[in-house]
Amino acid sequence: MREPVQFLHLYVSDIAWADRVVRLLDAEPRSITLTPQIYSQDPIYAQWAQALWRLDWSGAHDIWQADCLSQQVLDRLVLQSAAPWQRHKLLKPLGGLSSTARRKVLDYVDAHLADSKALSLPALAQVVALSEYHFARMFHQSMGCTVHDWVMQRRLQQVCARLQGSAGSARGRAPQLARLAAETGFANASHLLRSFRKHYGLTPTQLARCWHDA
Fold it and tell me: For the HTH araC/xylS-type domain, which residue ranges apply (predicted)?
């Protein structure tokens, strides 16, 4: 192998493993041991590593996203180490969230957009008293997207609403964007700009100008 090789490590503490086994499988933690996968190839783990590698870890949002991704990988590790009957029980089709639970989660997300820690997968699952695994699956079933995608969509919509409600002079754009980023959960103004342009195809300033000229 002549090309440089880079490694990404995921360290799972005994407490985290035991907690996930109990909540996911309702099993004795000592009965489930991590299955060795030396030299194996799993596209899910490859996608996880690539997604983590793209993060710059410069702010709370990136740390939150890394936590969401790693929680999903931990679920997969536990499932791969479980007995076939345990996997079958967990993987059987589930319905979505009830209308009450769905509204409770969505209201909670909107109330905590600026706080990435409050929007972690464990925190959201706790709102409706579900395991992270079941919550993630039921949320996707109800909303048609992942929790991360929904939070990002709501943050961007909140930015649009605030831009539309304020004129913002040319001199005040930079601090306004920085303030918007902080108030809506983005790591900084640059992170907001990148996400906004990727989603809408133009910058917040360009969109605000369109509203101003209309």
Answer: 103-210
Distance CA 170, CA 193 (A): 16
At residue 203, the pLDDT reads 84
Residue by residue, DSSP assigns 70-102 as HHHHHHHHHHHHS-HHHHHHHHS------HHHH
For 130, the domain range is 96-144
Judgement on whether residues 126 and 187 belong to the same structural domain of the protein: no
Contact 124, 135 (CB under 8 A): yes
b/e per residue, 14-37, with b = 16+ CB within 10 A?
Answer: eeebeebbebbbeeeeeebeeeee
What is the value of pTM for the model shown?
0.63
Same domain membership, residue 85 and residue 114: no
Phi, psi of 131 (to 5 degrees): -70, 155
97 Cβ partners below 8 Å, 6+ apart? 105, 128, 138, 139, 141, 142
The token pair that represents 179 in the structure block: 């303030």
Angle, alpha carbons 51-55-61 (nearest 5°) = 110
